[in-house]
Amino acid sequence: MEVFIQQLPKIELHLHIEGSLEPELMFELAKRNQIELPYKSTNEIRAAYQFDNLQSFLDIYYQGANVLLHEQDFYDLTWAYLLKCKIDNVVHTEIFFDPQTHTERDISFDIVVGGIHKALKRAEHELGITSNLIMCFLRHLSEDDAFSTLELALKHKDKIIAVGLDSSEQGHPPKKFERVFKQAQEHGFLAVAHAGEEGPAQNIIDAIEDLKVDRVDHGVRCIDSESLMVSLAESKMPLTICPLSNTKLKVFESMSQHNILQLLRRGLQVTINSDDPAYFGGYMTDNFLAVASALPFSKRELAQLSLNAIDASFIEKQHKIQLKQKVNDYLAQV
Ligand code: HPA
Ligand code: ZN
């Protein structure tokens, strides 16, 4: 099973680039940029990664991002993640970035996008990994702040395919961002949103109805509403599920309690993703391995997760056909 998972062509749809900042790179960038870290060693950093819930993670995650200052830093961060993709046989990735985490610290939007975009283009040429970029609004900040961020993004519309919504779900329901999502969609951006990670199933319904999202990030709390489960299966609305994130942030007590296989078998369009791999203990292969060792997945079901992700991705139809062929060929020869 390990070799099967390692070599399975994978597609990632839920990855926060700031969440791929490994402690080693954090230290290197802190030194390069003369920033004082509250840790003495990478071991000490890793030891601090014990979370009780989403907020306890977010506090540490935003602090880590403080070492990112220059275009080169964003480039190095993104390139390091893409090298992990190569090892894990990730053939296409759609990555999030949080512009407000940086513009709040007076780092320009152009620097952030510039560094990320250059690394993504290099990966396409040198590693054969294709990608799309998604800009997330931080939901703990105001609607006005999100509108200003959208304004900054317009000049980069050729590099950003969609808007998203992340950060603290509790107390910041989808409705708060209805108008900014509508405006983003009028400009031609696609839309995704984190919903039903810690928050209730109603947030999933609201993300679909009020924000008109093309897919739901996490969405695992859908299990609390039978009618929502039925409509998600019928509409084939994709859920980008992040198993190691969910256990680290105590959304599920253990991997054997995770509902991903149950949702898959109910016909929901579920996918596997790594979310913030530097903080949650693993990249794509690790996430597949974690679910496959805790739950009775068949090889066909694991491959179905890749096929679901291809359908749920924002790539062109012809490219989807090629990628599906790759997965089906792989499945046929094992
Ligand atoms: N949820 C919400 N916000 C986030 C996450 C997450 O899992 N990761 C990074 N920002
Ligand atoms: Zn996320």
Automatic annotation (TrEMBL):
Pfam families recorded: A_deaminase
**MF terms in GO:** hydrolase activity
List the catalysed reactions.
adenine + H2O + H(+) = hypoxanthine + NH4(+)
What InterPro entries has UniProt attached to this entry?
A_deaminase_dom, ADE, Ado/ade_deaminase, Metal_Hydrolase
> Which residues does UniProt mark as catalytic?
197 (proton donor)
Q: Which key words tag this protein in UniProt? A: Hydrolase, Metal-binding, Nucleotide metabolism, Zinc
Q: Which cofactor does it need?
A: Zn(2+)
Residues annotated as binding Zn(2+) are 14, 16, 194, 275
Q: What is its EC number?
A: 3.5.4.2
Indicate the segments forming the Adenosine deaminase domain, all copies. Answer: 9-329
| HAMAP family in UniProt | Adenine_deaminase (MF_01962)
Q: What NCBIfam families would the database entry show?
A: aden_deam (TIGR01430), PRK09358.1-6 (NF006850)
Which purpose does this protein serve, as stated in its record? Catalyzes the hydrolytic deamination of adenine to hypoxanthine. Plays an important role in the purine salvage pathway and in nitrogen catabolism.
Q: Which family does it belong to?
A: Belongs to the metallo-dependent hydrolases superfamily. Adenosine and AMP deaminases family. Adenine deaminase type 2 subfamily.
Q: What is this protein called?
A: Adenine deaminase
Q: Tell me the lineage of the source organism.
A: Bacteria, Pseudomonadati, Pseudomonadota, Gammaproteobacteria, Vibrionales
